[in-house]
Amino acid sequence: MISLGEFGQQLILFGAIFFALVFWVWGKLRYDVVALIALAIITIGGVISFETAFTGFSNPAVIIVVAVLVMSKGIKNTGFINFLINKLPIKGKPLWFQIAVLSFITALLAPFVYNIGALAITMPLAVSVAKKKKISPAFYLIPIAFAAHLGGFITIIGNAANLIVSSFRVDFGMEPFGMFDFAHVGIWISLAALLFIIFIGWRLIPERKEKKKKEEVSEIKTYTSELIVPESSDLIGKTLEDLKEKLVEEEFKISAVIRDGKRMTEIENTEMILEKDIIMLKADAETIKQILSLTDFKLKTPKEELEEEGNENKEDKDVKGVEAVVAPSSRIIGFTLEEMKIDFRYDIEVAAISRHDQEIKEKLKSVEFKVGDVLLLRGNEEDINEFMDNSNILPLADKDIRLTPSASMAGAFLIFLISVLFATFNILPIGMSFFLGAVAMVSVGILSPKEAYENIDWSIAVILGAMIPFGEALVTSGAADLISTGFLDLASGAEPITVLALVLGFSIIMSDFVNNVGVAVLMAPISILIAQQMGVSPDPFLMAVAIAGSCAFLTPVGHQANLLVMKPGGYEFTDYWKAGIFLDIIIFAVSIVLLPVMWPF
What is the pLDDT of residue 37? Predict the structure, then answer.
């Protein structure tokens, strides 16, 4: 461990924070990996001790997130949520009414099943509704993603930022916030913001229409797939122009031809098709299906190297195609198709991949999966469902696995209700209450231990555990005191409400580029010190930081929920702020009015 004195520690700490901010915004490394590297920097640099470095992983905030995710999976296993969603009165209703119902359902689920969990439940339904209504899913997906943020304002378990600010309150010698303390202001913020989304906000979202008339608007239009020319193909010796004439009604683009291991991107229509050519094309899911039916081309997967009879099962009538999106907690993130061996392990094919921010140029088997990637899966329904469940891949259509609640539904809700009540009335600490609830659900068989482990978003747990020590580092190194003094100098002689507005505004802006855990960890201890130096209560400042942590409305990178809907909705980077900027203004205005009333200085 290196010891450089207080000034040196501050330099190392600010350097680690700057590193984390840059790489979080850049997005080339996973959030959790960035957090771990930053933790290693301040530990080796002597800002915190080796003993302190891992205390964040035992923090109640981490335990609560893990337990809530496990219990939410248990409730989903009973089929009750699917049952309710299938009973929603939205068929044949106006678009604004459908958006209202989906948004309110998402916002009501988020306080109890975590915001990403709520979005994972309602997103497939929204895509299905859009497909049936034959309109763009863009109208639905940003509203429900934003609704997931808003639901996080209401309870301590709805958002990681809420848990962080509560833990810092304890670190500074105060009682933790209660289960519904955030609702005093959060419920009014959520209501005002939801009303804006329902009546105005969705109208500001551009309709991402498809160019192709026959194409359904809810299909992804930029899939990259690989087709191999078999030795017996009747197109061998023909040209690419002949191929295009054969497929005259299908809209697609040939981006490359791979021949003898060499990639050719400058391709003329007169280029001759040879056996074992691999044709890389970009098209929508329906077009890929049509091309496969109109030609004798085969999908290029690792299994194509095996000419076994069993492979021909892919052509039977039980084969189906499913579009699915890679969730933030997916186990396949960072791995390639070749490394995962998905087609061998699950007997399915990843027929094509679509990515929102770039054209896929390398072979599909070499593409590293990222959050928000949309996969076209092909195989038997049972195999596809097993893969999606095990890997946390979300279908872009309602799977409708269970139409009626199971017998365990009452037990699951009873366990969850008891956990909430124990936490609300301080019978047990919040972390212990939900931990025991998760253990109870596994013990009575509502979900298996394997399901419990697989449903935990370990990336969130790692980010929380790695970033929590930064709060202590900010205090012990004197950095938090330095920053808080800077805030007060900036607002010299100002009233507490003005300083509160500065803290809230700065944190809201920060949340659009840094994940909510980072905002809470950096701003919570600073806010407490600001309040102490002013001689006022820190509670309105902590609540402001928690609120700001859920205000990542302007960019797709500010929150995982935004990124998750980007590709399915066909959004561009600039689409988010068109409605999000007004939400930030509404939330800022409501918060500044209510925070001093509900949480006096």
Answer: 94
Whole-number mean pLDDT of the chain?
A: 81
3-state secondary structure of 320: strand
**Model confidence over 501-559: pLDDT tens digits?**
999 999 998 888 777 788 888 899 999 999 998 999 999 999 999 999 888 898 876 67
Tokens linked to 492: 């010299």
Q: Which residue has the tokens 């802006």?
A: 509
pLDDT band at 403 (very low <50, low <70, confident <90, very high): very low
Residue type, 532: Q
Q: How confident is the model at residue 397 (pLDDT cuts 50, 70, 90)?
A: low
Amino acid in the structure at residue 242: D
525 close to 471: Cβ distance less than 8 angstroms: yes
Distance CA 509, CA 511 (A): 5
Q: Determine the 3-state secondary structure of 374 from DSSP.
A: strand
- Interior angle at CA 325, CA 578 and CA 255, nearest 5: 90
Closest of 17, 1, 2, 7 to residue 471, by C-alpha: 17
Q: How far apart are CA 229 and CA 242, in angstroms?
A: 14
CA of 148: how far to CAs of 13, 106, 208, 354, in Å? 33, 6, 22, 24
Instruction: Please give the domain boundaries of the chain with CATH numbers for all domains.
Output: 5-208+424-598 (no CATH), 320-395 (3.30.70.1450)
The number of beta carbons lying within 10 Å of the beta carbon of residue 449 is: 10
Burial class (CB in 10 A: 0-12, 13-18, 19+), 395: buried
Q: Is 382 left (phi over 0), alpha (psi -120 to 50) or beta?
A: alpha
- Give the 3-state DSSP-derived string for 464-530, with helices as H, strands as E and coil as C: HHHHHHHHHHHHHCCHHHHHHHHHHHHCCCCCHHHHHHHHHHHHHHHHCCCCHHHHHHHHHHHHHHH
Which pair of structure tokens corresponds to residue 547? 């609120």
Q: Rounded distance, CA 12 to CA 44, Å?
A: 10
pLDDT at residue number 222: 65
d(CA 536, CA 531): 5
State the Cα angle at 167 between 7 and 483, rounded to 5°.
30
DSSP string, 219-274: S-S-EEEEEE--TT-TTTT-BHHHHHHHTTTS--EEEEEEETTEEE-S--TTPBP-
Cβ-contact 176, 61 below 8 angstroms: no
Q: Average the pLDDT over 30-51 and give the result.
A: 89
Q: How many CA atoms lie within 13 A of 112 on its CB side?
A: 19
Percentage of the chain exceeding pLDDT 70? 88
Q: Provide the token pair at 169.
A: 């309150």
Assign residue 392 a region (left: φ > 0; alpha: ψ between -120 and 50; beta: otherwise). Answer: left
Cβ-based neighbour number of residue 312 at 10 Å: 9
Phi, psi of 498 (to 5 degrees): -70, -45
Amino acid at position 221, single letter: K
Pairing of strands 349-354, 374-380: antiparallel
pLDDT score recorded for residue 308: 40
Which residue's structure tokens are 């855990």? 517
- Other residues' Cβ atoms within 10 Å of the Cβ of residue 234: 10
Residue 568, exposed/middle/buried by CB under 10 A (0-12, 13-18, 19+)?
buried
Structure tokens at 374: 């949309």
